[in-house]
Design brief:
about 140 residues; mainly beta; single chain; Immunoglobulin-like; about 50% strand; four-stranded mixed beta sheet
Length: about 140
C-alpha cells in the first residue's frame, strides 16, 4: 500500500486479497493492507513534479464518504479509488476527493453504474481541478 500523510487513496498490493464491487458487470478481487483512516482530516500532501500532477475533484455534500475510482484513459482496469471528504479551508468548506501522484495524461473517473462519468487531462507539475457531474451516482 502507498499513502502520503493526509492522502485519500491507497494503492493495492498483492498480499491481502478481498472481493470488491463489480466493474462493467464483473467482479474481481484485489488486495490492500489497510485504509488511511485519518485521510481528509488535515492538510493534504500532494506528490507532483515534472511529469506528475494531481486532481482535486469537487463533489456535492451527498457524496462525502463515496470512493470514486480513477484510471488512465487507455488502461481502464488500472483503477484506484479515493474517498470524498469534507475539507475546511480559510473562508469555507468544500467536499472533494484528491488524487495525487498522477502521471501526465488523460484519466477516466467511474460512476456507480460502471460507466465513465468524467474524463480529465492531467499535466505535470499542476493541480487540476474538476467537478463531479451533477446527478451522477458515485460508488459507495
Amino acid at each position: 500500500m502507498s499513502t502520503t500523510a493526509g492522502s485519500d487513496h491507497h494503492d493495492h498490493s498483492e498480499n491481502d486479497m478481498h472481493d470488491h464491487h463489480s466493474h462493467d458487470g464483473h467482479s474481481h478481487s484485489h488486495s490492500h493492507t489497510e485504509h488511511n483512516h485519518v485521510a481528509g482530516l488535515g492538510p493534504t500532501v500532494l506528490d507532483i513534479g515534472d511529469d506528475v500532477g494531481a486532481l482535486v475533484l469537487y463533489t456535492s455534500a451527498e457524496l462525502v464518504g463515496a470512493e470514486i475510482e480513477i484510471s488512465p484513459h487507455d488502461a481502464p482496469h488500472q483503477r484506484r479509488h479515493v474517498a470524498v471528504h469534507t475539507r475546511e479551508y480559510p473562508g469555507g468548506t468544500a467536499h472533494a476527493a484528491v488524487y495525487y501522484g498522477l502521471a501526465a495524461g488523460c484519466y477516466d473517473l467511474w460512476a456507480a453504474d460502471g460507466a465513465v462519468a468524467l474524463t480529465v487531462s492531467i499535466d505535470g507539475n499542476t493541480i487540476t481541478e474538476s467537478v463531479w457531474p451533477e446527478g451522477v451516482l458515485a460508488p459507495t
